[in-house]
Write a structure and sequence with these properties.
Blueprint lengths: L1 H9 L3 E6 L4 E5 L4 H16 L10 H10 L12 E6 L5 H10 L5 E5 L2 E5 L8 H7 L7 E5 H12 L1
Helix pairs in contact: 3-6
Length: 158
């Protein structure tokens, strides 16, 4: 992650911070989120030779994700509470399909471009998690546990 931080700093981005080995970067930019995602994808391909989709949220968008926290009453372990960040708002049928796949103790709620999922037994054997992490969503997605989500917001507020 230090190399990734240095790479983005050398590209002219400001206030570049990373969080553990998660692939998350917090930085300052005047570019729109869509433009920043495109520029970052191109930059990573040019500099590292990797083709990776980039999902961008502004500080305020991330703060709204944390403020909503629709599963706060049941999601008591932040490592088992996941937020999937999507490139576009999913069709309502996708959320219904996720709910149908979920085990009885799991919960899933879609709001805007995020899907909140509670996996009380963990993600390892969760059919819901396998679906959320797979290619079946029809949009580009990346998921982070609640600890990572709230830490990224704290980094953005520094």
């Amino acid at each position: 992650m230090p190399a990734l931080r240095e790479l983005f700093t050398s590209a002219g981005f400001e206030d570049v911070r990373t969080y553990v080995q998660s692939g998350n970067i917090v930085l300052s930019s005047d570019a729109s989120p869509a433009q920043l995602a495109r520029d970052s994808e191109r930059f990573l391909a040019d500099q590292l030779g990797v083709s990776v989709a980039v999902i961008v949220r502004t500080r305020d968008e991330l703060a709204e994700v944390v403020r909503r926290n629709p599963l706060r009453e049941v999601a008591v372990n932040p490592k088992r509470y996941q937020v999937s960040f999507l490139s576009a708002e999913p069709a309502s049928e996708l959320i219904e399909k996720c709910a149908a796949i979920a085990a009885p103790q799991e919960r899933v709620i879609g709001i805007g471009r995020e899907i909140y999922a509670w996996h009380p037994e963990g993600v390892a054997r969760s059919r819901l998690w396998a679906h959320l992490a797979g290619q079946g969503l029809g949009v580009t997605a990346t998921a982070r546990n609640w600890t990572t989500v709230t830490t990224l917001l704290a980094l953005a507020d520094e």
